[in-house]
Design goal:
about 500 residues; cytoplasm; tRNA_Gua_MeTrfase_euk; 3 domains; GMP Synthetase, Chain A, domain 3; five-stranded antiparallel beta sheet; alpha/beta; seven-stranded mixed beta sheet; SAM-dependent_MTases_sf; Rossmann fold; binds S-adenosylmethionine
């Protein structure tokens, strides 16, 4: 095992929650199993020229302890398509056919159902494959196909023997030539058989409505059209597959893409947190991995609160907030996003609750946001419960916009009661991402946020690259260029954290 460097160790500690600033992580890992499975007994009868059917009777009285079934690896070995498909770039579904030998039990047709119930963990379970077939030699009998991984070397285990004894079935296992076709193989099995051996097979994709979105590596590119078609075949509802052809560095955070298979229609419908959106995936930003984060922020809002969404996209913060009866000001520089935002406001019947803007985020903050805040904060009474939230989800750049808040309301009557809470997103490749984000926000604001902010890990974007959200109330001396008179009251001075918001929610 390679040694971890000091920075890798601190990064790991951070990930496991050693940073006081880290409130919650959203990380999921899948545990990959390394267990291999003996496949020596498996026959490919196709090579011996045998047709499907019963051909060998194996009598064995040895008892085995069953190995634990390891779905992925074991299945890959048994259920792998014909080896000749390796290197195929134009999909030929016929070429995947292959015949494998599987164990079967011959039983009288009257007891088939009882046997299936009693041996349900031993019987073959695979979509598209029959578990019971006719017996070519005896019309009163049926052949029940068993899972070869549960019957190693065609030997029944003790428990199966016991079941058969009770049902008065002769415990004889035969071999049956089972024909597997393209339809019986899973996406990953097909791609593993086609792509170069030993190289990574990516069958993962994000789904946006009817579109599957891939990010293929160089070695996969020659197979891209085949990969696209297999994804369509194996995933009902997906009718278009696209591959990202440039990194996401355009101003509008959308990316160029190539349609690999299916219809070239990139206008789609999605549902997130029970709200429907429509969008043109080739022209606007949409990331299905942000649904939890959108929900988390909207949870913090109360009816009557005001939300300013500086980089709103097509509205995944703005529209649910408006549905929650907040007053929303949503902005996006991309005219396409702005148009889809308007469209989705109408679609969700909140067009009267959202004021939409199509301008640069800085101009939006200096113009409509400033105007609204100075109007609203003057009217705000101390006991009033309205909160002001400013969401800034443009992780590559948003922190650089924070300097706008410096003295934004200089000269206006000052009150700590309604200081807006900013939720600003950023990427970090730092060993301590929370510290990094806080320091960068502080540099932009020109003040310390120590004890006055919370950071939240949103997601791991790439190896060693995290997306975080820093939340803080804009300090009065930043916003008004002076402390507020009521700041002498320590209760009003303390800034609310996400924990406070959650507690408030619990209390309300
Ligand atoms: C990462 S996306 C986030 C969209 C949406 N808030 C979401 O969570 O899905 C950032 C959005 O900011 C917009 N954008 C980029 N630069 C901008 C700028 N200078 N001013 C305003 N919007 C901008 C992009 O068009 C894009 O829709």
């Amino acid at each position: 095992m390679p040694m971890q460097t000091g920075s890798a160790v601190s990064r790991t500690l951070w990930r496991f929650g050693y940073s006081a600033r880290l409130l919650k992580t959203n990380r999921f890992r899948t545990a990959a199993s390394n267990t291999s499975f003996p496949a020596v007994w498996m026959l490919s009868a196709q090579y011996s020229g045998r047709i499907p059917g019963l051909f060998v009777v194996v009598k064995k009285n040895r008892f085995f302890t069953m190995p634990e079934t390891v779905e992925d690896k074991a299945n890959l070995e048994l259920y792998s398509p014909h080896p000749e498909v390796r290197g195929m770039t134009l999909l030929n579904r016929e070429a995947f056919k292959r015949t494998v030998a599987v164990p079967v039990l011959k039983v009288k047709k009257e007891i088939v159902n009882t046997l299936l119930k009693s041996l349900k963990h031993t019987v073959l379970q695979r979509p598209g494959l029959k578990r019971v077939v006719e017996d070519p030699e005896d019309e009163d009998s049926r052949l029940v196909i068993l899972d070869p991984h549960k019957i190693p070397e065609f030997s029944l285990g003790e428990s199966e023997q016991e079941v058969l004894k009770q049902l008065n079935v002769h415990p004889e296992v035969s071999k049956y030539n089972l024909e597997l076709t393209y339809e019986n193989f899973k996406l990953e099995e097909i791609l593993r058989a086609v792509l170069p051996e030993g190289q990574e097979v990516t069958s993962g994709f994000s789904r946006v409505g009817h579109i599957a979105h891939l990010n293929l590596r160089d070695h996969q590119l020659p197979y891209r059209h085949l990969i696209g078609q297999v994804i369509i075949d194996k995933n009902p509802g997906i009718t278009c597959v696209v591959n990202k052809t440039s990194i996401i560095d355009s101003t509008y955070r959308n990316f160029q893409m190539e349609v690999l298979a299916g219809e070239s229609n990139l206008v789609t419908k999605v549902k997130e947190n029970n709200i429907a959106y429509e969008l043109d995936f080739s022209k606007v930003y949409w990331n299905p991995r942000l649904s939890t984060e959108h929900g988390r922020i909207v949870e913090l809002l109360k009816p009557g609160d005001v939300l300013f969404d500086v980089f709103a996209g097509i509205g995944p913060f703005a529209i649910p907030a408006a549905k929650k009866k907040c007053h929303v000001f949503a902005n996006d520089l991309n005219p396409e996003s702005y148009n889809w935002l308007l469209h989705n406001c109408k679609l969700n019947k909140v067009d009267n609750k959202i004021k939409a803007f199509n301008m640069d985020g800085r101009d939006f903050l200096l113009g409509p946001v400033r105007e609204e805040l100075s109007k609203e904060l003057q009217l705000l009474k101390e006991e009033q419960k309205t909160s002001f939230h400013i969401v800034m989800n443009l992780p590559a750049l948003a922190i650089e916009f924070l300097d706008v808040f410096r003295h934004l309301l200089a000269g206006e009557p000052c009150s700590t009661a309604g200081l807006p809470t900013v939720h600003c997103y950023g990427f970090s490749k730092h060993d301590d991402p929370a510290k990094d984000i806080q320091e960068r926000a502080e540099a932009s604001l020109g003040t310390s946020l120590d004890g006055r902010c919370s950071t939240y890990l949103v997601r791991n974007v790439a190896p060693n690259k995290e997306m975080l959200c820093i939340s803080f109330q804009i300090p009065a001396d930043v916003l008004y260029k002076r402390p507020c008179p009521d700041e002498a009251n320590p209760a009003s001075k303390r800034l609310r954290t996400s924990k406070d918001f959650s507690e408030e929610k619990l209390l309300s």
